[in-house]
Specification:
The structure holds 3 protein chains of 3 kinds. Chain A is an alpha+beta fold. Chain A is 28% helix and 23% strand. A 7-stranded mixed sheet of chain A has the order 3-5-1-12-9-10-11, with helices on both faces. The longest helix of chain A is centred in the middle third of the chain and has 25 residues. Chain A is globular, with a radius of gyration of 26 Å. The two termini of chain A are 48 Å apart. Chain B is α+β, with helices and mostly antiparallel strands. In chain B, the strands form 4 sheets. Chain B has a 5-stranded antiparallel sheet with strand order 4-5-10-6-7. In chain B, β8 and β9 form a beta hairpin. Chain C is α+β, with helices and mostly antiparallel strands. Chain C folds into 2 domains: 75 residues, Beta-grasp domain (Ubiquitin-like (UB roll), Roll); 77 residues, Orthogonal Bundle (DNA polymerase, domain 1). The N and C termini of chain C lie far apart (45 Å). The chains are: A alpha+beta, B alpha+beta, C alpha+beta. Chains in contact: A-B, A-C, B-C. The interface between A and B is large, with 43 and 39 residues.
């Protein structure tokens, strides 16, 4: 890994595994997550939820025979102008509390609060809801209501398909929903008062990824001005997208109860409720039609992709956008047509989950590549190499890939690493005389190549206009940034970038808690942008500060200059705003142009065995090579890659959301299963660094790319092992058994 | 969080007192619910199930602890013997090693440390992992009440789905096994490699074979056993017979068809290995590195 | 019910309903919020504590059953129960060095389960011993590295 700056100077902080700023509290139990916090006079809140997937609400009644003293009850009538009963997002179609119509199971209808949690549970059981049930659209494949549609076109696909001598390969691929399964459930505490209890404002503490999304949603809900709404992110036990937009909803509920009761209100979901009611990865069905020359050159890619959005729009348009842009996989073609639609169903709305549409569309693309290889009698790797993006190629949206294109390199490095790992495994198995595996156990190897655009699509970063910066102190700097730490090491990574840029020790950089009263809006902590985009803004702020400090060459002289500048100015705060790299051009209308400033590139190779008795697929070795531009903190970067990879493996083999009548039936950790240690293969990681000129020290995004590949690699390995087609995840033993029949 | 304030627990120090409490409560028509390690009970309480009026906490009854060898081939398990006790017991490792295999696959170590054999038996889940082993080994359940003791073969312990022969004034004080001769084999096909609810469990000792998760109760496959005991080794016939002994269903975890096929595959494998070297079915998921499931 | 506990080497007395979950007694009555609730089903292991040296899920233990027992929680790992970096236990230091904690919510339970491992545990035994602790962030690889480093040190 390169430890040099551009000019050959050695990097002292970036590229090193510095101690995590927030590490000690996590290993001592001192870190305070939302359920660890209490405030004087705090009461507890709970949600009354619908028990039908669609219908008219006739009445929501508190049982008159029950003693309601000590309870606070809230329904939609408690939301009054200038507030609005709308969860501000993209389409503004989702209410905080249903008014007269239910559109999905577990839809919030009313809220209750009480000081005693046992009593609260009793109260919840005494709220009766009467409905007039209506026919529900539960299946998205047969649905006809479209929440959002987009089209990407390049060249003339129909003309290519009509040509003589062209081979056409078709395939249809499906992916199921996936639950983010953060080990800490959603939770918030809302309190009357923003800067003091009587100012008429509100404060919300909670587990979340985007405090400023919550601010916006609360301003719309209450009609309060921005200064009267304060949101503080508490230590968050995992997000993965599941706490991107959802917290706005639970925060709004807690706020309604807090304003009505005049008390702090804690709402923390238990696991069952979190599973049933919160967002999941959009299920997908993707149809590919590919035109090829006999030698395997891809001529045209025609994709029809549909996602299940659930009952409300939430973030579906953006998920669809990313799915569609990545739908070709990392391959060139002279003609491309991608039609993407999000369908409405009467199920709990789906939302953000790491990868955000790209895992779904790239699963299809990569399993389809193996199908093509099979039908054309070509080697799967040779086929991919023939069509794999190189610098100078043009993507589906017409983006010319100018720099930092490492598709071929990640393939080569993954192959080399995998060969080494499997050699070691064979040796170890041989040494242990472990011949039991030989007979009757089908085994195979599968590959997947993939890419992932960093940052918001197209003009998204410009619209976000993120801001971040620093405050100077006599002994260092304090970062002022709204990005959240949710396990990925944001604070550490940002501090490293700033320390390196300023030429000061890492320990001299402090990060402030993401408190919207104190930090600027740096945009949401999503979309693999926290390092590449926000880190870059911080770097520019640090460069500016460095210029203003004048000359220094070590910590001592830095502190001298800092004290001087502070004496001159009183206080020094430098906030910078996002600057679009000049060469990015995008049109939202035609969906053409530079979709992302940079892409991360990935290659996965999986060895899989199928148990002949139980049909269980078992991954025995998994190799992943990811180009992330620059590993600011190698261990943290590896951690993102390993964690994202295992989430992808879980999605491929184990994770299944079983729905009936629009409600999740396996809403417990007993029945919605993620990999344990014993389900986890050895994961061998190769970090590739192809620097991106506009990223801090060359860094691109790392959080999501790793999850885009595993499902296809594993399904391709299963096909190699069994000789049977499998076009769907999760590849459960039941499905494998059916395929092998 | 559970509404603990309203739940009554009696906590006797001695078995005699426990049995007296059980008798009195039963006579009053409000039987006590015995509680051992709580690994089944607390899951249902956490899920919001209404608690019983009164529980009898067995945890202080030291007389019920322990696992030991009994005679030449026997094993004795106290009513509070845990899965960890089974794993650690040299007697079990030697005489009924498939019980060690099964115990290692019950949840994770946290569950093994607290879950009891007796609790699992009485809870009556058809997916219990240890019970098929006990049943294939012809285990006997020792039930005691204030003034009587009786021994019931485990194969006769269940009268229906989660229904047992235990009377409201009785406690399981021990499980006794005279381990039969014959090759032992245990196979659990779960939803994943650890912390898994089983989809199919097969446990065999000699020609005795029991299945879990494929019927409302854990069952001995009598027709199949009779065939095999009589020398039958035709796989197709064995599979036809076992299909009559089991009644798998579709549920949130799996399908009847899958369970049926896996049972057939297990039976084929079992028959195939019957007359060869006695082979312990390898516990799935605990293979050596680099393999993992 | 009055219950005597020995928690992290200190004698404590609490007055709680006997069936109150040990998890809640620790968090609410003893102010030890380091032990976490992830599922309430005994599946995730985030609530793992040591009772007389054995790892158990505190969400499934009634407090009455630990009357007079020796309890150890994450707050009791570091020397003197301290929170400062200087007083960390070697296992905690290994977790920090290897990046074995990301979001940290599973970490207290993971640490306790790791402390309950046999001192000579092989990689397979580490994996089996931690199979009752779910982690969604790390992919487990760095947890193995940290635990292996810790156990190596124990054997030395």
């Amino acid at each position: 890994m390169s430890k040099k700056k551009r000019n050959g100077e050695k990097l002292r902080t970036v590229g090193h595994n510095v101690a995590r700023a927030e590490g000690v509290e996590k290993v001592t139990g001192a870190a305070r997550y939302i359920d660890d916090l209490s405030f004087d006079g705090m009461i507890y809140g709970a949600t009354v939820r619908s028990t039908v997937p669609a219908g008219r609400i006739v009445a929501v009644e508190q049982d008159p025979a029950f003693d309601w003293s000590g309870f606070t009850f809230v329904d939609h009538r408690d939301i009054v102008a200038p507030g609005k009963n709308v969860v501000a997002m993209i389409a503004d179609d989702q209410p905080f509390l249903a008014v007269d119509r239910v559109r999905h199971q577990a839809e919030p209808l009313a809220l209750l609060a009480h000081a005693d949690r046992a009593r609260l549970a009793e109260g919840l059981a005494h709220v009766r809801v009467r409905y007039e049930s209506e026919t529900a659209q539960l299946d998205f494949e047969s649905a006809d209501k479209v929440l959002k549609e987009i089209a990407i076109r390049r060249g003339d696909v129909d003309e290519v398909f009509a040509r003589q001598g062209v081979t056409v390969v078709e395939g249809t691929y499906r992916t199921g929903a996936q639950e983010q399964l953060y080990i800490e459930c959603n939770g918030v505490i809302a309190m009357p008062g923003a800067s003091n209890a009587d100012d008429g404002g509100i404060s919300v503490y909670g587990s979340m990824q985007c405090p400023y999304y919550v601010v916006r949603a609360l301003c719309v809900l209450t009609g309060l001005p921005r200064e009267k709404v304060r949101v503080v992110q508490t230590t968050t036990g995992g997000g993965f997208g599941g706490k991107e937009e959802y917290p706005s909803l639970i925060a709004g509920h807690a706020v309604l109860l807090a304003r009505k009761s005049g008390r702090p209100v804690k709402m923390v979901y238990e696991r069952h409720e979190d599973l049933v009611a919160t967002t999941k990865r959009h299920p997908s069905i993707v149809r590919h039609r590919t035109a090829l020359a006999k030698d395997g050159t891809i001529l045209a890619i025609d994709v029809d992709l549909r996602l299940d959005g659930g009952a409300y729009v939430t973030l579906s348009p953006v998920v669809l956008s990313r799915a569609a842009i990545h739908a070709t996989g990392p391959y060139r073609a002279e003609a491309v047509r991608i039609r993407g639609r999000v369908m409405m169903t009467n199920t709990p709305p789906n939302g953000a989950f790491r990868g955000f549409g790209a895992p779904q569309s790239q699963f299809a693309a990569e399993v389809h590549m193996d199908r093509i290889a099979g039908e054309l009698g070509l080697d799967p790797i040779a086929l991919r190499k023939k069509n794999l993006f190189r610098t100078g190629d043009v993507t589906a949206t017409g983006q010319k890939l100018k720099d930092s294109v490492a598709a071929h390199e990640v393939l080569d490095r993954a192959l080399a690493r995998h060969a080494l790992a499997t050699k070691k495994n064979k040796k170890r198995a041989h040494n242990k005389n472990d011949a039991a595996r030989g007979n009757g156990t089908p085994s195979g190897t599968g590959i997947a190549l993939f890419f992932h655009g960093s940052g918001f699509t197209g003009g998204g970063e410009v619209k976000l206009a993120s801001r971040a910066g620093l405050a100077l102190a006599p002994d260092g700097v304090r970062l002022l940034v709204g990005s959240t730490e949710i396990g990925q090491g944001t604070r550490t990574m940002h501090a490293q970038i700033v320390a390196e840029t300023l030429g000061i020790p890492y320990d001299c950089v402090e990060t402030a808690d993401p408190d919207t009263a104190r930090v600027p809006d740096s945009g949401p902590t999503v979309a693999s942008r926290t390092c590449m985009v926000v880190g870059k803004i911080l770097q520019r702020a640090a460069e500016k500060l460095r210029a203003e400090l004048g000359e220094y060459d070590d910590e001592k002289s830095f502190k001298k200059r800092a004290r001087w500048l502070l004496a001159e100015r009183g206080s020094v705060e430098i906030i910078e705003e996002y600057q679009k790299p000049g060469d990015i051009v995008w049109s939202d209308e035609t969906y053409e142009g530079d979709a992302y400033g940079a892409y991360a590139w990935g290659c996965n190779i999986a060895d899989v065995e199928i148990d002949p008795i139980s049909y269980q697929a078992r991954c025995t070795q998994f190799t992943t090579a990811i180009d992330i531009g620059k590993a600011i903190h190698p261990i943290l970067a590896e951690g993102q890659i390993e964690g994202g990879t295992l989430q992808g493996i879980g999605w491929a083999l184990y994770e299944d959301v079983v729905m009936r009548d629009g409600k999740m039936q396996n809403a417990s950790l007993t029945n919605y299963i993620i990999p344990t240690t014993l389900d986890t293969p050895p994961i061998s990681v190769e970090i590739v660094e192809h620097p991106y000129a506009n990223g801090p020290f060359g860094a691109k995004g790392v959080g999501e790319c790793p999850i885009d590949g595993p499902a296809a690699a594993i399904v391709n390995a299963i096909r190699a092992a069994t000789g049977k087609r499998l076009d769907e995840v999760p590849a459960t033993p039941e499905r494998i058994m059916k395929a092998m029949a | 969080m559970i509404a603990a304030a309203g739940i009554d627990v009696l906590r006797p120090r001695h078995l005699k007192d426990a049995l007296m409490m059980m008798r009195v409560a039963a006579d009053e028509g409000h039987p006590l619910v015995p509680m051992a390690g709580g690994t089944d009970l607390f899951v249902t309480l956490n899920a919001g199930q209404k608690p019983a009026a009164r529980y009898l906490d067995l945890w202080r009854l030291d007389k019920l602890r322990g696992v030991r060898a009994d005679g030449k081939r026997g094993l004795w398990f106290g009513g509070l013997a845990t899965y960890t006790d089974c794993i650690d017991s040299k007697a079990v490792q030697k005489r009924l090693p498939i019980l060690v295999d099964a115990a290692r696959q019950v949840g994770g170590v946290q569950i093994q440390n607290r879950g009891t054999l007796a609790g699992n038996i009485e809870n009556g889940s058809p997916a219990a992992d240890g019970v098929p082993v006990l049943m294939a080994a012809d285990a006997r359940v020792v039930l005691r009440s204030l003034d009587a003791e009786r021994t019931v073969p485990l194969a006769e312990y269940y009268t229906g789905y989660r229904k047992t022969v235990r009377q409201p004034d009785e406690l399981i004080v021990a499980i006794e096994i005279d381990v039969p001769e014959g090759a032992q084999r245990f196979d659990k096909v779960g939803t994943r490699a650890a912390q898994a609810i089983s989809k199919v469990v097969m446990a065999a000792v000699g020609h005795r074979v029991a299945f879990g998760s494929v019927a409302p109760v854990i069952v001995r496959a009598h027709k199949l056993e009779a065939y095999v005991a009589g020398g039958g080794r035709d796989v197709a016939e064995a599979q036809r017979l076992v299909r009559e002994d089991v009644k798998p269903i579709d549920d949130v975890r799996s399908t009847a068809e899958y369970r049926r096929r896996v049972v057939e595959n297990l039976v084929a494998s079992w028959i195939g290995g019957l007359d060869g070297t006695p082979r312990r079915g390898k516990a799935r998921g605990l293979d050596k590195a680099p393999a993992s499931r | 019910m009055k219950i005597k506990l020995h928690v992290n080497g200190k004698k404590k007395s609490v007055e709680v309903p006997p069936m109150k979950r040990l998890l809640d007694t620790l968090r609410e009555d003893l102010g030890l919020t380091g032990t976490k609730e992830g599922c309430g089903e005994g599946e995730c292991g985030a609530c793992t504590v040591l009772v007389d040296g054995a790892a158990v899920n505190a969400c499934l233990v009634p407090t009455c059953q630990v009357d007079d027992a020796e309890l150890r929680t994450v707050e009791g790992i570091a020397r003197g129960g301290g929170k400062e970096a200087a007083r960390l236990h070697r296992l905690q230091r290994a977790f920090l060095d290897h990046g074995a904690a990301q979001c940290g919510i599973c970490t207290p339970g993971m640490l306790m389960a790791a402390l309950a491992l046999p001192k000579k545990a092989t990689l397979d035994e580490i994996r089996a011993g931690l199979a009752g602790n779910l982690c969604r962030c790390t992919g487990y690889m760095k947890i193995y590295d940290a635990v292996a480093q810790f156990l190596d040190g124990e054997r030395a």
